[in-house]
């Protein structure tokens, strides 16, 4: 089937009740010519469909509608979608609550005689009243089960509603038969009716559905908290005046005013003012970030105490917040590989249960001769079987897990990435920008002539205005020490060596050791040893030389080195504590790479590696059937990220790196690497727990019901709580928090500059 010109759409599907429904919809969609891929999620009640030009949108929607479900295309306007979904969820919950309360009030009189019997009080409700109440429950409140079951049968499939319909109809039908033909025996106590059984079962199933709707609503709370970040209105400057308009009406180029304490409505750049911006719910960064003119701000961030003017760069679905929400929703819509087993089981689950129920009725009836009791055993079998729990076990865990990860700044792109991440045994790191900041920092100064501050004034003056990374490091250091630059009379770049400058009629040279060779300057042994030592550890060295008459004097030596990121050591130690091997892949020389690796206690180091060789190393690490994660941020990391079992891109990463990865981190804190694996493990454990209980529940419950050890009402109660218990277990993931405490001091902050 051709994937050329393939398109993808999201569809909202209502009316699905269990895993069998999901399997039914998927099969029907995949059978259509032109549908390339289809994935249906019970927890989100959505389908993702990839299709080509040989089928239309209307045909796809009609395919679902013809199965008895209601399909609706999800449009691109994310603001309207989220408002509409929230409104629909509230309406559904309100309707379910009202139906449940009325059903319980009608069922209660039927249940009272049973309760009184526990206290040896005999009371019989009028049989006509029993008939009326049970009929209302059976055919008004139970109508949804009949309609769903009928549609399933017409489309040659089966679902949970079919089991409920058959089971309750059997109890109601048997009672109706007794009422019509043996009413006198019932009045005399010589025959029994069981209207309360059918009514209680339906009410309990409604109760289970109500709990399920409530629990499902909570599984999306993380996404809803992200959605709520976007303010409804924005203050913009138009036509020479300030006016409030809907955020959806803001266009690129608009000047937006953001007052202290307000949420930022768009992605943009600050053109006036300065403030602190809280981006914690988007990036997971715990502390507010200082922002001033030229800095970028993100929609959904909270402005601090300053007033800022922002020019709009992105609105609506193009904002970072909207992209994050779409990414998380896409991840929740896709299925984990483990779900394939569930789909296979659910496709045959209902027919097998119906067969077991029929066999229970026949075998029990033939062996005991008590056909009335046999019917109730069969009803219990049909009612207790619950494919819902199977269908909800995986998607609910994924929804909560990916949602919680997103709140911490971890974007897990799909369910497969989450499943792979939990089994990672090796994490390979790129060095620069991943474990280190990627910017050189002045780590040491040796002054041979004059004092440190005097020399610092000269080098700051020479480097003023330069964009070179080493120059920026010098200027930052000078700023921290309140150094005021001297007036430069002349400055000239000398290719491959450094810079010449004339300051106060004195000539200075700042640059590499080539100046030492040119001016025949020889280092004393103690300084030469220090230069060799730090150079082998990856430090860059600059020399400040002054021309005095015809002599050249070495005034000072400056050492620069990339700085290890805050929390990098903590991350490595934490990964090793859970049995994960750490590897560093670097293009640096052996001495430099080994120095960083030793500082961080990394297990294995690959140095002098060219960009195209990184992917080869990842393949070598994978050769022993070991799951390998690769962490990187640059274009040159993209091939290795793609080859790894799971790629993790850092917050500062390029688009190529982010596209090639399965997990994207929204900030540059290395501890998110550990957190992403930790939340993946926790989520996968919940999936396994849920599937275990869903299978065990049916494996134990069905035989007990067939043996007559569970009456139909208890079976209905157990079935009602099975789905809720699975969702409740998944919701425990909402308590997940990062195990790693943020360290506020750099691992290298004990190094002295002077």
Automatic annotation (TrEMBL):
NAD keyword on record: no
EC number, UniProt record: 7.2.2.9
Class of enzymatic activity (EC top level): translocase
Pfam families: E1-E2_ATPase (PF00122), HMA (PF00403), Hydrolase (PF00702)
Coiled coil: none
Record's keyword terms, sorted: ATP-binding, Cell membrane, Membrane, Metal-binding, Nucleotide-binding, Translocase, Transmembrane, Transmembrane helix
CDD domains: HMA, P-type_ATPase_Cu-like
GO cellular component, one term: plasma membrane
Signal peptide interval: none
InterPro entries cross-referenced by the UniProt entry: ATPase_P-typ_cyto_dom_N, ATPase_P-typ_P_site, ATPase_P-typ_TM_dom_sf, ATPase_P-typ_transduc_dom_A_sf, ATPase_P-type_domA, HAD-like_sf, HAD_sf, Heavy-metal-associated_CS
Domain HMA: 7-72
Annotated localization: Cell membrane; Endomembrane system
Record-annotated membrane-spanning stretches: 98-119, 125-141, 162-181, 193-211, 348-369, 375-394, 691-710, 716-736
Membrane topology qualifier: Multi-pass membrane protein
Primary location group: membrane
Gene3D superfamilies with a match to the protein in the record: 3.30.70.100, Calcium-transporting ATPase, cytoplasmic domain N, Calcium-transporting ATPase, cytoplasmic transduction domain A, HAD superfamily/HAD-like
Reactions performed catalytically: Cu(2+)(in) + ATP + H2O = Cu(2+)(out) + ADP + phosphate + H(+)
Lineage: superkingdom: Bacteria
GO molecular function, one term: P-type divalent copper transporter activity
GO biological process: copper ion homeostasis
Keyword match Hydrolase: no
Family membership noted in the UniProt record: Belongs to the cation transport ATPase (P-type) (TC 3.A.3) family. Type IB subfamily.
Protein name: P-type Cu(2+) transporter
Lineage of producing organism: Bacteria, Pseudomonadati, Bdellovibrionota, Oligoflexia, Silvanigrellales
